[in-house]
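Section 4.2 – Deliverable D4.2 (structural model, holo form)

The reporting period included a commitment to supply a predicted holo structure for the target in complex with LNRAV4D5. Inputs used:
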Amino acid sequence: MSNESEKAPVGIIGGTGLTTLAGLEITGETECTTPWGSPSAPLVEGQLGNQKVVFLSRHGNPHRIPPHQVNYRANLRALYDAGVRTVIGVNAVGGIHREMGPAHVVIPDQIIDYTWGRPSTFFEGDLEETTHIDFTWPYDADARATLVAAAKGRSVPFSDFGVYAATQGPRLETAAEIRKLERDGCDLVGMTGMPEAVLAAELGMRYVCLALVVNWAAGKSDHIITMEEIEEAIEQGMSGVKSILEASMADLGALTPKSS
Ligand SMILES: CSC[C@H]1O[C@H](OP(=O)(O)O)[C@H](O)[C@@H]1O
Ligand code: HPA
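Output (structure tokens):
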């Protein structure tokens, strides 16, 4: 690619607390469909600084699609068709690790999938051959390093490690389930990390997670989880997430595609 205007856009999938991306200079909006159906919302094209971005609200706009009913295949394929080859999944999560309390930002390095019944591969139906992709490192190393470098330059409390537990939802977990996840080695818990990560990998895209802790996971504090505390943590922490996004965008845009 020879000049700025030909660079591929970076994809941002916004989750809870990030239905729209303030600061994105919007240049267009595209309703689209894919062989897997329609994405959760129209793709919003724009500029974040000098970087072209395609933004997609995971739960729709307004936020109405629960985590187990998101059409992850359509979301990832729509971004792919829009030319995106690097995707940042922004997630609200519960904190399990003792350093990961409300308003803490985490750039996880691993994931464990506890979801069930979700269409989680593009490789099905009438295939010429079976395909088993490598998924040892679910998050792209270069994109992770870029986010970590950007986070270091800001006054945002963050961790550059963590195992994300993807649960089925939409209910939150029991305290015993969280203890089990902890024994499994999980540090944070959310409901949308899978199959999003693996579908991006199947399409050959770079994928990275930028997570904001919005509550202590069940049983990790002396109170039950309320939407009020979640909203408060979003209010407190999402500006840090946005500043990391803004600071990392140009470098994420400069990453060469894994495949074309
Ligand atoms: C109590 S909020 C739960 C909701 O928030 C997270 O969404 P996302 O990952 O899209 O930010 C979590 O996965 C649940 O869907
Ligand atoms: O505690 C949680 N559990 C699962 N998903 C979540 N998303 C935000 N908080 C949580």
